[in-house]
Inverse folding.
C-alpha cells in the first residue's frame, strides 16, 4: 500500500510539473499565433524561461513583440539561442 501511495504521489507531482513547465510555452504559442509569428521556437523558449524566473516574468508580461527590445541582454541572449538559424 505504501508503494502505491508513493507511486501516486510521484506520478501526481510529475504530472503537475509538466503542466506548470508548459505555462511559458503555452503563452509563447498563443502570443505567436496572435501576432502572426512562428511557433517553432516556443518549446525552447518555454524551457529556457522556466529555468530563468526573470525571463519567465518578462515573457508572460509581453503584450507586443517590440517589448522584447526592452529586456535585459541576458534574457535576449537566452531567447536568441532558440533561433539558431538567425545566429
Amino acid at each position: 500500500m505504501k508503494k502505491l501511495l508513493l507511486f501516486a504521489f510521484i506520478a501526481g507531482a510529475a504530472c503537475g510539473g509538466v503542466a506548470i513547465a508548459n505555462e511559458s510555452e503555452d503563452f509563447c504559442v498563443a502570443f505567436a499565433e496572435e501576432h502572426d509569428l512562428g511557433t517553432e521556437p516556443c518549446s525552447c523558449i518555454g524551457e529556457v524561461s522556466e529555468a530563468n524566473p526573470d525571463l519567465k516574468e518578462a515573457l508572460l508580461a509581453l503584450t507586443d513583440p517590440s517589448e522584447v527590445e526592452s529586456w535585459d541582454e541576458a534574457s535576449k541572449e537566452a531567447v536568441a539561442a532558440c533561433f539558431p538559424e538567425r545566429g
